[in-house]
């Protein structure tokens, strides 16, 4: 209990504060007085009947709110005035239309009026309109710049950050999200040099930031422990797993509320009432997003809407307003992106064991203490990036895409997108099949395939015959594929186990290792060992079966919908699937130039010192079975200059969702074979496809030049 005098002091302080705040409100209003009066009289210029003071005041208030919304974008009232007058005329004084969607009509009209101007202003605004248009909408900007003072009243354990409108704003119809998971929105406290350089008509997020009372950067603090609280019933996420782990303060479980509140009482329009977005993550890495639109629930005749149609509606709306050019944009991917980013942000900011430095991107090693959110945003997706990037007219950011990198060479188109808009398109020649570079010794001849190695007496589909044909001999008398074209579970499991947990006897050591020999002809080092592999043998030309035979999967080429994209973890380009893939699906083959190891070694020497991605794989699956291999028989594939889409598949230590399996097609020996990628588990649309390159990060002699791994796997081998 507080003593009586202390209570009085508190009350007095509150009154004093109120007076100050009220004074500020008045001061601000006073400065606008003239303009407002002038504007309202302009509005009613042609008004014939006597104007009631109520109507005058109501109009004044609405105009005031409109200016507030545009001022938040750094636009001068004077500039908005003619636009507002025009719109009122156009809409026959219907304010609702102007106020709808956070004054979108007004803001769009303002920018459109600006765009039609000539000169440098125009150029700047054009760029602005392309890259900044989405953020013209105040509620979106709010997501990034406003933190509610109401968060102060929340318990520190919750750290739930929601937005609420200040008392001054409460009469304005404006829905606002405070996008402010503390750790997602931290910014370095520094001045922005671009701000000074910007032309006066470039209204940027930075402008907005300066106008908000309390910017995110003032609030956030990296040093604070991660927010964690029990996502109870109120957030609607109370599944067992979540509630079980919730409430702990170990930093693994996070709940962030992106709230939107507005004075419902003052808003007749239900669309602008309370809503909030809640994101929770569990220790196991799951992320759940809960949308709470209580105003919708309060609607008469409330029915649960079909979520897909809401997503479709949103997609259309965003495609229109954001002018996104990527054909793959969908709300689903946006949400997935949001989850991914959330998890990344969480991972990146988890305390590191022994205070070790944390790595962000390819080669950046930064001390945790000096880590700024600028780096965090660099490694996160563009939801976060946008916040930092779109600060000036000269900083372009637009999605760039290619429709088909294969130029028609594959059965399917493979698109490429760069959501950062910053990367040069990769330079290489797309080839759908391996080609010999120079010295590799390869003979594809029917004469080399003995009758016992093919099924000339078969017809139709070998998989449907009661007794498996000779082509199944390689896989123990059973075909590796199911009738649906997937790898059989047993076969896949055996391959994955050999790869992930190889036993000693899974390695073979060649007497005269071609890899070592290629480095030094005179004093070769002992062989480091090659992993024994399981092979698939597909039917081929000498076989009597049909091309649609179930034992011809890899040779029929890519059938799934793939996309090359710019990763957000500093890995460069990556490959993702745009469709769900069942476990055991064939994805693509690794295609490149067929080189001898000596040729590859020489290429690597030439490229030494050049900081670039490398793309070789060694075809060493059977090197142990022959005592000595001639140089021209010890082969590898290099996709650096010529290759297919597989050249974009990034490495993931241990638990990649793809596995590479050797496939014999046209040659009976195993000096040359195809390397085909199959999924190791069910993969969902938009997941990045990865495989374990099998590299030892300490072996600097490995044909794949060592890189700092940012695979994100819990089993990453490159943790130093
Ligand atoms: C076969 S390429 C993969 C495609 C490549 N990311 C690109 O942009 O073209 C292999 C190169 O990608 C990069 N890379 C692949 N996986 C990575 C990972 N887990 N972490 C960091 N870099 C990676 C490395 O530079 C590596 O040399």
UniProtKB/TrEMBL annotation:
Domain Pre-SET, residue spans: 458-557
GO cellular component: chromosome; nucleus
UniProt biased composition (Polar residues): 143-153
Alphabetized InterPro entries for the sequence: Pre-SET_dom, SET_dom, SET_dom_sf, SUVR4/1/2, WIYLD_dom_sf, WIYLD_domain
Region: Disordered, residue numbers: 130-153
Signal sequence coordinates: none
Pfam families in UniProt: SET, WIYLD
Keyword annotations from UniProtKB, A to Z: Chromosome, Membrane, Metal-binding, Nucleus, Transferase, Transmembrane, Transmembrane helix, Zinc
Domain (SET) ranges: 560-694
The keyword Zinc is assigned to this record: yes
Membrane-crossing residue ranges in chain numbering: 6-26
Subcellular location: Chromosome; Nucleus
Source organism, top-level taxon: Eukaryota
Protein name: SET domain-containing protein
